[in-house]
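Record NAD(P)H-dependent flavin oxidoreductase, 358 aa.
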Amino acid sequence: MLVSTETVGPAVSPGHSFGPSSAPGHIHHEESYMSLQTRLTEAFDIEHPVVLAPMDYVADARLADAVTAAGGLGLIGGGYTDEPWLSRQFNDVTESVGCGFITWTLRGKEHVLDFVLDRRPAAVFLSFGDPAPYAPRIRAAGVPLICQVHDLAQAAHAIDVGADVVVAQGGEAGGHGIGRRSTFTLVPEIVDLVSRVSPKVLVLAAGGVVDGRGLAAALALGADGVVVGTRFWAAQEAAIPRSAQQRALHATGDDTIRQHVYDVVREKNWPKQYSGRVLNNAFVKKWHGSEDALEQHLPQARAEFQAAVADEDYTSANVIIGEGIGMIRQVDDAADIVCSMTEQAAAILHRPATAALA
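=>
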């Protein structure tokens, strides 16, 4: 997709189809920085083509506000459709933010979606399930619909139901997904599909994007921007124990694994095609591949898990991170993450071509 880069001061990119003007109190960095203008920044009236992944409970009002204030698009992690928690988050937000849902949890809780739509979110982000039952009410509310997909069939379906933005999530991503495709190949295939059948739809890349190299790669593959989870999981504003972050900072991508263990022990009835990428630990090693036995010992295993969560013992408690964790070595402010990612990507995209050596 078309990208322009320029060095700018504290300015806001011009808004077009989706975004409201900058919310009151919108924070801009006073120093000059490299700005990446794409169809995403124009459509949502944001400065940087960086979107916060709506990580359930981790992406709360504080983190979503911080990403929006830094010039990205913040999304609250509505996750399992926890109405009291969502109500508190929307009461606390001060910026223009969106909200994401685990789609299959909306069944029977459509009133929670209506509550969010009444708050005029910047977007609604649907993942993991058929968006068709909910797309009409989102579009009728005039709210942009973002659909996360994992293969070409899902992408085509998202376009058919009226998605404004399609997120191509590769298996490198933390948390749930189908995990059969990598970001590097899935993104350009979906870009090509969208270009053929619905060119106005935006495409974002997700999975493994933690710095400017990933953002530059995504833009080079034709995406209009990126959805970032693990890097913001390791932000100062993330609603996550500091001990979990410090534990993860010592990990590499090789230390993560796709598994169903934590869905079983938490009694989350995820559709079987979805697995979750987490930090591998003793608890996962004990039960991975033995989920039937885990169900037979569920009371004891659940008690062990819950005690570990309370004690912040990550030999048994879950740490939901993606393969990109291996490129993260410190916890930073969300604003620093957004700006450093954009500046690094802009510098890469500005590099002059060099002649091949004979």
